[in-house]
Amino acid sequence: MNMANSLRGEVLNLYKNLLYLGREYPKGADYFKRRLKNVFLKNKDVKDPEKIRELIGRGEFVMKELEALYFLRKYRAMKQRYYSDTNKTN
Predict the structure, then answer these.
(1) Record's PANTHER family (predicted)?
(2) Count of C-beta atoms within a 10 Å radius of residue 36
(3) Containing domain of residue 35, as a range?
(4) What is the largest CA-CA distance in the chain?
């Protein structure tokens, strides 16, 4: 029972973190929230701890992908601004 509770806490944390990251999703926060909720609801009856860990791992991978996406988007925007600023002074 204790392991189930700790896994439940991990799942809830993962959901909250993904929800937070979804605010900047290119297709919109509402789109992301709906998709996220559907994926979590689809797996709500999974009881096997190994399967739950596997799903948590998949969710953590998605978090890293989102962070990379946002980082690249910010980097491109900064680079674009920098180059457009330097071109104006030339």
Answers:
(1) ELECTRON TRANSFER FLAVOPROTEIN REGULATORY FACTOR 1, GROWTH HORMONE-INDUCIBLE SOLUBLE PROTEIN-RELATED
(2) 19
(3) 18-84
(4) 68
66-81, pLDDT tens digit by residue?
A: 999 999 988 888 888 8
pLDDT tens-digit series, residues 50-62: 999 999 999 999 9
Full-model pTM: 0.78
- Residue 55 half-sphere exposure toward CB, CA atoms < 13 A: 22
**Number of Cα atoms under 13 Å in the Cβ half of residue 28:** 3
Q: How far apart, in whole angstroms, are the C-alpha atoms of residue 30 and residue 36?
A: 10
Q: Is residue 69 part of a domain?
A: yes
Angle between helices 49-89 and 2-21 (to 10 degrees): 20
What pLDDT does 84 receive?
A: 76
